[in-house]
Specification:
With 556 residues, the chain is α+β, with helices and mostly antiparallel strands. The chain is 29% helix and 23% strand. It has two domains: 223 residues, no CATH class; 194 residues, no CATH class. The chain is built from 13 helices and 22 strands.
Length: 556
Amino acid sequence: MTRDEIDPITLTVIWKGLLSIAEELGVTLRHTAFSEGVREGDDFSTAVFDAQGRMIAQGPFSPGHLGSFPYVVQAALDYFPAESLSPGDDILLNDSQLGSGHFPDTFQILPVFLAERLIGFVCNSAHQADMGGAAPGSQKVHGVTEAFQEGLRILPIRFVRGGEVDEDILRLVLGNVRLPDKVRGDLMAQHSANRAAAVRLEQLFRDHGVDTVEAAYEIILDRSEASMREALAKVPAGTYGFEDYMDDYGPDTEPIRMAVDVTFDGEGGVIVDFSRSSDQVPAAINSYLNYTRAYSVFAIKVFCDALWPQNAGNMRPIKVVAREGSFFNPRFPAPSGGRAVLQVRMFDAINGALAKAMPERAMGAFSHWSNPNIGGVDDRTGQPFIMYDAIMAGYGGRASGDGPEALCPVMNCSNIPVEVHETHNPVLIQRLELIPDTGGAGRYRGGCGLRKDVELRTESATLSLLGDRHDFYPYGLFGGAPGAPAETVLNPGRNARALPSKGLVPIARGDVVSLRLSGAGGYGPPGEREAEAIRADLRDGYISAEAARRDYGFDD
């Protein structure tokens, strides 16, 4: 069947079926995973590919994984050409350069067959609780100078053959990680989820026929590309640049320049260029090009064509480049374990550039986030533990309203519940609260920062800090004020000591780590904020009476 012969109803049924398969794959993975990061934090993603290795549909999960998927699958096919694959195979990899930028993200790619014919691939990724290396959680930044120090590196391998897990490979992996039970559980959950999705994809092809589904693929990709090109062509032609800075890449190190130039050609194409950024750094925070591409494509899509699906079609008009050897395109074996801290900052940089072309769609900078890991041995059980956390705060003010509070910006994960942390780790969460007077003032206020105080309740542990915005505040737009800076404090109220945004810190029983995220940037002049909005902020505790007088000249 040709594309001209597919009626709209059949096309819609096929498309909705593909979306359902991709989303159900994620639901299966979430419900069968062992680690808190996957099960509670939603740090995973899923997608469906055609037999040529083109992404057709994706689940509503993390852009860092989703935007990397096309390159991950192509890398896997370079190692395992389609003709070498058999029913029941499943390919595993986690390489930073080939994958989504750091070793904890493991990808599994399962080829799907119908009557011995390859009809596509189902894929998923999951952030593993640990992949070995220099610190619990495999995300130590300072003091790591090459990828080989970061843990177990897995180039594409046939993890499952003919439906049978290769126990030798599994034993090799589990022998190199701190939490083998959780890693085993998540790896097997990934494989099981792929198998369930493969059954559904096979049925979709049986229901409609191979020729019909493959013709539908071409329609989906071409229409997605046309939609993106039409949206890009509406942006005024020109180059829009922006610069911001990361605090550092560890204690007593230099800031990292994040510079982007976004060029619209006026004819449906765009180039996102990070080449003016700093050189790669001798610490585990560099962004390999797949990861840079992922969040650049996401940002362009959010600004220009948010409602159409993301697939290989609408990624075609977007080109992402960075100078080789730069921070956003490092040469292997550059370390990159802490690259997660960059995702919000990449979006913020592109947002700052596109505010010059599309001010009504831009927002003040996000409050950023914090991704600490605390690892050691739980005295109660004698077993290792790793508390992997993802702490999210506010959005920036926008042209249409204030920034929402305590939501996950850009990466589409979730704050992990206090009860989950306390159940699985020897910790007590002493407080989790918004921080008043931290959101940038403006016609529309930025979201507040968030404070989380964690007490250690075992003899000793290692704290791996992964945060930012201690020194360079989240910017405001069009007269909006920046958000308040972040800070990290050890033992507030008793011998308090300021900690860096990134670093490795030994802690002992009774120590309290106070993670205080920055506020988000405001939008528009504070003098234009409506009095009733200020009163509402006072009632809700977002600002104090002093801040209302200082920032808005308000004294009611």
